[in-house]
Write a structure and sequence with these properties.
It is a single chain. This protein is an alpha/beta fold. The protein has 25 helices and 17 strands. The longest helix has 18 residues. The chain is globular, with a radius of gyration of 28 Å.
């Protein structure tokens, strides 16, 4: 076993890649790895590479630095004390119930191994390495976990040949590196569960296996968990606290995030990740955890009849081994394990499979409980809280949206039901466009909330944007994984983020990225100031008046670096935009889908570009033109803060729902005017009050709580 000062093995280096840009990692010094692509450094401590995106650094690491980077103890098991507790508990700690649980989980995994695929093993979320101890010494075994201290325990025990500290949502391994990837009871802690399944499939060779064990939704333990997470919990907890003081079967659930999975859901995720779901089995009867233990029956049994208790758990395991692979037990036990085989060649998709898949998604959407509850909540006059609470909840949601991607970028959003275009439900992939304009927001929030971590997050976003910037300087359209098509609008959205990161950090790399993006925009700008080429494939190139945001970005870039040609190009674009503004302030050619009735979102985009440029360059006539649109939209806001989501050329509302994004933008426009009147400030307050009332602050769904929905009512 290597010491702290010894270099990593060449065999391990051949497996690794940068978690940010997927390029090769070099090992120039024993305590660090350097990415050849994006130039980020990653620490190596106690022989364990730490390849988490949040610890990436542009600064060269001192060769004698052995300190652990900050942020390694943010999860439940990450502190040394919690890691040691996990190590003692997970294999039973000489307790019959604990041993039964460990052996049950172990049998449900190992019985599904295929001998031909046991030569190159990755345990994704290995903990203390309990499964890695099973394989012969000649097998290449790698343990991966986000907890450095658990990996240190596994390494000290000699469980596994190599250990890597990383996130399952962005595994730092080359594709097709392993013959078997296993993961036991890890997915429930992840908010981007499907993304983790896709990553496990990516690093599995063709013909290899992915084995995943998860907690099962269809077990009564789920109901018990939901009770302890529900508003009823304090009421259920009170009588037991009176009787037992510190103990109660209805104490708050220990984990802040703990999401269980259905068999059908995991099977669908596997299919979408090029895996063929195959054999599977259940594990654990469950009632021990939601009945015998919390109501003290197991403890009483242990004290009164320990031998009988030990005999019972031995027989329970024997019965489980016989029944857990059979219908219906494998679908109803506390946990289940499912094995997916990586395609050698994609199997043909039959008509029945297509119908079954669409039917399953449709039925799942109909049964989407969180979506139904949110729609019902909106109908019950939601309560408005103080500004600080709403702001903090929104910031917390954005932080979760960044954390779930595992790369530094921010998720496009959270889908309450299946999204057919993105082929996912829940947290969506990282989105370069919105990540870019969140960078200034996070720096501002760091100052307002006196939270330095938000500034760190902003820099992580800016670094990630560099890793996904296209070679021609552009920013891609759509989310990561949707293709690498250059997009003018998205490029303009990210430039201000890079400029702010440069202003805050002084790191030249951010300004260089912005200049490359600006050069791309200049190369493809039309003579009239617009962009007819390289618009997003999700938009019609004829209807992109909202590209005034790009013109504003060029003006900001030119002023920041003292290059007048960027300012001149931005001016041309603002003039181009003004030619499409009617006398009443409405904009033509200004919508992704219906230019006859554009969204308030794109109406405000166009106005933001004009107003921002007017304020930067002192163009009074442009300010007046922006004011016309702002006044028209202001007059359409009700006293309750409602604003229709689409308007025709006569400013007549065309839909009954609100586009909440556009409402937020209008409030910002009103407050950004040089001297907003009392009426304008009041309208902005009404808009923000309604936005806050629409925000859910109490849901136990982390994708819903604190976020702002796209429309009101929900699903509009």
């Amino acid at each position: 076993m290597t010491t702290q000062t010894e270099p990593l093995a060449a065999e391990l280096l051949e497996l690794l890649q940068c978690p940010l840009c997927h390029e090769t990692l070099r090992h120039p010094q024993n305590n660090a790895l350097l990415c050849q692509g994006c130039g980020h450094w990653f620490p190596v401590r106690r022989g364990i590479p730490i390849l988490l995106p949040e610890v990436a650094s542009r600064e060269t690491m001192a060769s004698d630095d052995q300190s652990l980077p900050p942020g390694l103890q943010s999860r439940y098991w990450d502190t040394p004390s919690q890691a040691a507790l996990y190590d003692r508990k997970v294999e039973g700690e000489a307790d019959d119930l604990g041993i039964y649980t460990h052996l049950s989980e172990h049998y449900a995994m190992t019985t599904l191994y295929r001998p031909a695929n046991l030569d190159r093993i990755l345990d994704a979320g290995c903990g203390n390495g309990r499964f890695l101890a099973d394989f012969p010494p000649q097998a290449l075994t790698v343990g991966a976990d986000a907890s450095f201290h658990l990996l240190a325990i596994a390494r000290a025990r000699g469980r596994g040949r190599y250990h890597v500290c990383c996130a399952l949502e962005s595994l730092p391994f080359r594709g097709q590196s392993f013959s078997t990837v296993l993961s036991c009871r890890v997915l429930q802690h992840l908010q981007a569960q499907q993304q983790a399944v896709q990553e496990m499939a990516r690093v599995t060779r063709k013909g290899g296996d992915v084995l995943i064990q998860v907690y099962n939704v269809w077990n009564l333990k789920t109901f018990y968990k939901l009770l302890r997470q529900s508003p009823l919990q304090p009421l259920l907890n009170a009588p037991f606290r009176l009787l037992f003081r510190s103990m109660s079967p209805f104490a708050p659930w220990e984990l802040d995030y703990d999401r269980y999975t259905r068999w059908s859901t995991l099977a669908n995720w596997m299919e979408e990740a090029s895996l063929i779901p195959g054999a599977g089995r259940g594990a654990g009867f469950g009632f021990h955890k939601y009945f015998l233990v919390p109501f003290y029956l197991d403890a009483l049994w242990k004290n009164r009849a320990p031998q009988g208790r030990a005999t019972y758990y031995r027989h329970a395991l024997a019965v489980e081994k016989r029944l857990a692979a059979l219908f219906p037990f494998r679908y109803l036990l506390e946990k289940f394990t499912l094995r997916g085989e990586k395609w050698e060649t994609p199997p043909p998709v039959t008509l029945w499979q297509k119908v079954k898949k669409n039917l399953a998604h449709g039925l799942h959407n109909l049964a989407a409980c969180d979506a139904r509850r949110e729609a019902q909540r909106e109908q019950s006059s939601p309560h408005r809280h103080d500004d600080a609470r709403h702001l903090q909840a929104a910031v917390d949601w954005l932080c979760r949206a960044q954390d779930v991607t595992g790369c530094g970028g921010v998720s496009r959003g959270y889908g309450m039901i299946w999204n057919p275009s993105l082929q996912c439900e829940g947290w969506q992939p990282a989105y370069p466009e919105t990540t870019g304009y969140l960078i200034p927001t996070f720096f501002d929030a760091a100052c307002t909330l006196q939270n330095a971590d938000l500034a760190r997050r902003a820099l992580a976003m800016a670094r990630w944007e560099i890793t996904v910037q296209l070679p021609n300087g552009a920013v891609q359209a759509g989310v990561i994984g949707s293709g690498r098509h250059p997009a003018v609008f998205n490029t303009g959205q990210v430039i201000p983020g890079w400029l702010r990161a440069f202003q805050e950090s002084g790191q030249q790399v951010f300004l260089d990225a912005a200049l490359q993006a600006g050069a791309f925009l200049l190369r493809h700008q039309d003579e009239d100031g617009g962009w007819s080429r390289h618009n997003s494939p999700f938009a019609d190139a004829r209807y992109t008046t909202y590209n005034s945001r790009v013109g504003l970005a060029l003006i900001q870039l030119g002023l920041a670096c003292g290059q007048e040609h960027f300012v001149a190009a931005g001016r041309r674009n603002i003039q181009f935009t003004l030619q499409r503004q009617q006398d009443n302030g409405w904009f033509a050619d200004n919508c992704l889908s219906d230019p006859s009735a554009p969204l308030t979102h794109t109406l405000c985009y166009a106005t933001e570009g004009i107003l921002g440029a007017a304020l930067l360059l002192g163009e009074h006539s442009w300010l007046q033109r922006a004011q016309i649109t702002i006044d028209a939209l202001q007059h359409a806001v009700s006293s309750q803060g409602r604003l229709a989501g689409r308007f025709d050329q006569h400013w007549q509302p065309k839909v009954s729902w609100d586009c909440l994004t556009g409402s937020a933008q209008l409030a910002n426009l009103l407050l950004s005017l040089p001297h907003p009147t009392l009426e304008q400030r009041t309208t902005a307050r009404n808009l923000l009050d309604f936005l806050c009332a629409s925000q859910n602050l109490t849901s136990d769904n982390h994708g819903l709580r604190g976020g702002i929905k796209g429309s009101y009512p929900f699903g509009g």
